[in-house]
Amino acid sequence: MDLAGLKLFKMAMTRMDWASQRQKLLAQNISNADTPHYRPKDVKQLDFKQHLKGELVARVPVSRTNASHLKGTIPEQEHFRSLGDRKTFEESPDGNQVVVEEQMQKVGDTRSSYDTAVTIMQVNLKMLSMAIKSGGA
How big, in percent rounded to 5, are the helix, strand and coil portions of the chain? Predict the structure, then answer.
């Protein structure tokens, strides 16, 4: 059974992908907290109404057109658009706009979102396994 075909699992996996990409950007922001003129980045909020309507643009994955091309030289495209963080509370004298406390709060929020998606998947997997074990009656 392909769980990706079920809407609920697809939505949960999309939320988990979004959270993973956001955690990656937030980690980059925190690691560049001392880089002069660095502007923090964030991922556009996931809009499930748009996702349910099927309006998310499907990206074409990177592929090799010739066997002699090096594999992995082009990074895989991310599913979600990265945005520059426009509203920061402070800026350091060297022009850096990363506020570590703000970034850590976003990390916590993103972790909660990821955990929620995992919980939804676990509960529904248990429900499916119970239905299969009972014979669907």
Answer: 50, 5, 45
Between the alpha carbon of residue 111 and those of residues 2, 73, 88, 93, 108, the distances in Å are: 26, 30, 21, 31, 5
For 41, phi and psi rounded to 5 degrees? -120, 155
Q: For residues 136 and 111, give the distance between their C-alpha atoms in angstroms, rounded to a whole number.
A: 35
Name the β-bridge partners of 83. 42
Residue 93 dihedral angles phi and psi, to the nearest 5°:
-60, -25
The tens digit of pLDDT for each residue in 66-80 reads 777 766 655 555 666
Q: 3-class DSSP state for residue 82?
A: strand
Residue-averaged pLDDT of the chain: 79
Round to whole Å and give the CA distance between 19 and 43.
9
The secondary structure element, H or E, covering residue 101 is: helix 100-133
Helix, strand, or coil here: 84?
strand
